[in-house]
C-alpha cells in the first residue's frame, strides 16, 4: 500500500493526471476553456436549441477546436443554437445522456455498448478514418524501453485511460483475463490517466512503463506532433473494433435526429465541411450498424464472467 501511495504522489507531481490508483476513484473534472457548462442551464426548448457533448477523452485537448468548428457547422446548418458540453470522463457523458441532459454526443464505443443496453442509446453516424470505420487499441512503451511484447510488462507499471474506455481499459483487461491475470496480479502498479494523450505523455516521461491507447488519437498525434509519438513504440495492435460513434439520447425529436444525421453524412460533400473533417482527420461520416460493436460486447461478457469466477489475484 505504501508503494502504491508513493507511486501516485510521484505521478501527481510528474504529470498532471487526474485520478488515482484505485479503480473506483472518480476523476476530477477540469473545465476546458470556452466550453458551455450545464450547471444552471434551463431545460432545452428543442425548437431552437440543443446540447451536444464531446468528452475530453476522445480527442487531445488541442483537437477540441475542430470539434467546436464542427458544432458551429451543425448550428448554422440546423439554424438551432448548439450548446457545446464538455466533460473529461466517459462516465460524465454517459450519465448526461442517460438523464436526457444532452441530445447528441461523440462518445467511445464502450459507453455506447453500455448505453444501448441500459437506456436505448441510438447510433446516428460514425466517422470513417483512414478508409475504415474501425479503430484499434495500441499497447505502447517508450522508444528506448527493452519491453518487446505484452507479456514483458509483467511486474511493470501501466496506464489505463478511462475506466469505461474500450481501447484504453477493456482491451488490456481482456488480454489479462485471457492470461488468467488481473491488473493487480500482473502489474506492479497501474493508474488511470483519464485521457489517451495523457497516457501517451506518461509513457514518454517514463512515469509508467506501458499504456493502452486509442489508435485514432495516437495517429492524430503522430501527424500533429510526431516528435512526441516518436518517443513511443507500439508493441501490440489489437483486432479492429467499431469506431467511437455519434449517438442521440432516447426520445430526441425524430426530425432533429434525422437533420443532424443528414448534416454529418453529407459534410464531406461541401468545401467547408470537408475542411473541418480533414482537420479532424476524418474522411467522412457514415452509417454504422449496431452489430459492429458485438466484439466489444463479447469482450465485456468474457471479462465479467471471469471476474465472477474469480481470476487470479
Describe the structure.
- With 313 residues, the protein is of the alpha/beta class.
- It folds into 2 domains: 49-133 and 242-293, Periplasmic binding protein-like II (D-Maltodextrin-Binding Protein, domain 2); 135-241 and 301-309, 3-Layer(aba) Sandwich (D-Maltodextrin-Binding Protein, domain 2), CATH 3.40.190.10.
- It is 41% helix and 19% strand.
- The chain has 12 helices and 13 strands.
- It has helices at residues 2-14, 64-78, 90-99, 109-119, 166-178, 183-186, 196-204, 215-224, 226-229, 254-266, 271-279, 294-309; strands spanning 49-55, 81-87, 104-106, 122-128, 134-135, 137-142, 157-160, 189-192, 210-214, 232-237, 241-242, 246-248, 284-286.
- The protein has a 6-stranded mixed β-sheet. A 5-stranded mixed β-sheet has the order 8-7-9-6-10.
- The longest helix has 16 residues, at 294-309.
- The two termini are 15 Å apart.
Features:
2 domains, D-Maltodextrin-Binding Protein, domain 2, alpha/beta, 6-stranded mixed sheet, 41% helix, 19% strand, 12 helices, 313 residues, 5-stranded mixed sheet, single chain
List the helices and strands and how they pair.
Elements: H1 2-14, E1 49-55, H2 64-78, E2 81-87, H3 90-99, E3 104-106, H4 109-119, E4 122-128, E5 134-135, E6 137-142, E7 157-160, H5 166-178, H6 183-186, E8 189-192, H7 196-204, E9 210-214, H8 215-224, H9 226-229, E10 232-237, E11 241-242, E12 246-248, H10 254-266, H11 271-279, E13 284-286, H12 294-309
Parallel strand pairs: 1-2, 1-3, 7-8, 7-9
Antiparallel strand pairs: 3-12, 4-12, 4-13, 5-11, 6-9, 6-10
Helix pairs in contact: 2-11, 3-4, 5-12
